[in-house]
Amino acid sequence: MGKKSIETNPEFASEVVLSIPYAYWLHEQGLLEKVSVCKGMKPFYWFCDNVDESYTHRTLDNSIGLKDVPNKWLHLSEAGGGRNGVIDYSEWKVPPYKQQYANDHFDKLDPFIVVNNIFNIEGGGNKPVRYFDIQQLYDMFTYLTEMGYSVVYKRPNNTEFIPDQNEIDSINNQLDIKANVEGIGEITDYQLVEMMPNVYNITELNYGDWDYSTLNLKVFTQADGFISVNGGGYQLCACFDTPMIIYTTKGKEMRPKYLEYDDSYINMVRTKNNKVKVIYDNHDEWNSRHRKYSELMDIVKDTFIGWPAEAMLRTI
Fold first, then answer.
1. What distance in Å separates the CA atoms of residue 18 and residue 74, rounded to the nearest whole number?
2. What's the pLDDT score for residue 312?
3. What is the average per-residue pLDDT within 101-114?
4. Which residue among 171, 184, 248, 249 is least crowded, i.e. fewest CB within 10 A of its CB?
5. What would the pLDDT profile of 11-52 be if each residue is shown by its tens digit?
6. What is the pLDDT of residue 205?
7. In terms of residue numbers, what domain contains 311?
8. Residue (of 308, 110, 303) closest to 223 by Cα position
9. Residue 252 Ramachandran class (φ > 0 left, ψ -120 to 50 alpha, else beta)
10. How would you classify residue 185: left for phi > 0, otherwise alpha for psi between -120 and 50, otherwise beta?
């Protein structure tokens, strides 16, 4: 088998789960020649000596974006003859991001939790339903900071990287997460972050003039846990094998066991005793009931009960 070159420009989630682990597997076998990827993705392929950031767009057409990758579809299902969220792992290995991007740039924040959010138009031009709203963010920020954590908030506006079609639609529609807060008026999620102590927008932490990919990898490497919606690259958050909660409101992840099978891709990137925790809050039911605010907070409180031992050791 000769060395192989890969061209890949799918949506970010598919690249994290399908493209990068295949490239790293080839690298481990001594079979990787070159990768051609979207601008800004080189830090994810640090193990390859020949990275060409030639793509200036992403595609949702997997026959194009994943043409050189053995796994062509992220969302395999029982209905289609597979198993929900389970892919082929025979040529697949997640790179050791934590070892590669280990750093001490964020020690002053220790311990800290990353809250990973999005606010994007869904496929077919539908309104956003996969996101944390202002109330959920306020409740999580308040609890975590009172328990001694700092919080790093990530909610890109989609101009930080090469977007896919849905992200382009979101940019064009100038979407924002907003709410009227009693005594304050209308605020956005970004303004909420500015108002709360020990809560930081991830872009504030760019101490080294890094590109956006490097910034994420360095911050995620040092994080003590993640709380994420099921979108916006939650797959990357899972790769860092710290406690993680996924708030799931729509999508293939609503299929039974998709996020819960031991061999679902979301758990295959983690150790066996550190599976993700999932809360399901089907958006189709929001017209007849409130969002599951209390249920989400119950899981947050059960998962992040205070300063974890490994974080305390880093501050001594």
1. 7
2. 46
3. 95
4. 184
5. 999 999 999 999 999 999 999 999 999 999 999 999 999 999
6. 95
7. 107-315
8. 110
9. alpha
10. left
Q: Which residues contact 1 (CB under 8 A, 6 or more apart)?
A: 31
Q: Tokens 């640090």, residue?
A: 46
**Cα–Cα distance, 234 to 245 (Å, whole number):** 10
DSSP H or E stretch at residue 159: none
- Residues 267 and 272: their CA atoms lie apart, in Å, by 8
Measured between alpha carbons, how far is 17 from 7 in angstroms, rounded to an integer?
15
- Beta strands 178-181 and 185-188, pairing class: antiparallel
82 in the same domain as 13: yes
Q: What is the pTM of this model?
A: 0.93
Convert 36-45 to b/e letters by CB count within 10 Å (16 or more is b).
bbbebbbbbb
Say if residue 309's pLDDT is above 80. Answer: no
Closest-CA residue to 115 (of 200, 228, 202): 228
Average pLDDT over all residues of the chain: 91
Number of domains observed in the structure of the chain: 2
CATH number for the domain including 165?
3.40.50.2000
Instruction: Identify whether the C-beta of residue 121 lies closer than 8 Å to the C-beta of residue 127.
Output: yes
Tell me: the pLDDT tens digits for 235-279? 999 999 999 999 999 999 999 999 999 999 999 999 888 999 999
How many CB atoms within 10 Å of residue 136? 23
Q: Specify whether 137 is located in the same domain as 261.
A: yes
Does residue 219 sit in the same domain as residue 150? Answer: yes
- CB 86, CB 263: distance < 8 Å: yes
